[in-house]
Design a protein that fits this description.
It is built from 11 helices and no strands. The chain is mainly alpha-helical. It binds fe (iii) ion (2 copies).
Amino acid sequence: MKPVKQIAHLRKKLEKLLDEKRLEHTIGVAYTAASLAFVHGADPHQALLAGMLHDCAKYLDDAQMLTLCKKHDIPVSEVEEQAPSLLHAKLGAYFAKKEYEVTDEAVLDAIRCHTTGRPAMTLLEKLLFIADYIEPNRKVLPRIDEIRREAFSDPDLCVLHITEDTLQYLKEKDKTLDPMTKETQAYYRALVEQREG
Ligand code: FE
Ligand code: FE
């Protein structure tokens, strides 16, 4: 399938599955990721695909996510057991492969880690992680203007600031924190500090 056809086809399928807000977020992430790919020298089509599918499992409720993970032998951690919505990333990668016929492992990996990030992300993973946070439909968050500029000028610093603000937000709201978010923050803090000497 030609790239344009593939994206149009995905969009039609997702229109039936996602509510209006999530669909607009999805399209925002896809085109933001593609724009970041232009600037940072990643493949824009991979970025579009990853963006289109990153939340494709998010329409499921907690119980459905847990059931599907068990059914398909997707490992569920203790934190994910407590906050099953975290599983939409792993399940999204699973659906991308099984239902949307994405075979590109780089795209699947980006979908898999888009919620928490991870230490030493690939460029594509980083751009999806960032795009998910900065896309234009997102509600206004503290220092979002700065973070949006950094997305284009300094992605590593941008990831650091996103993880810092996410940790702060989760703490304030007393929400379940996936330890991977902390690992991502620690890695990018060390990276930025080392770079700055
Ligand atoms: Fe997500
Ligand atoms: Fe998202």
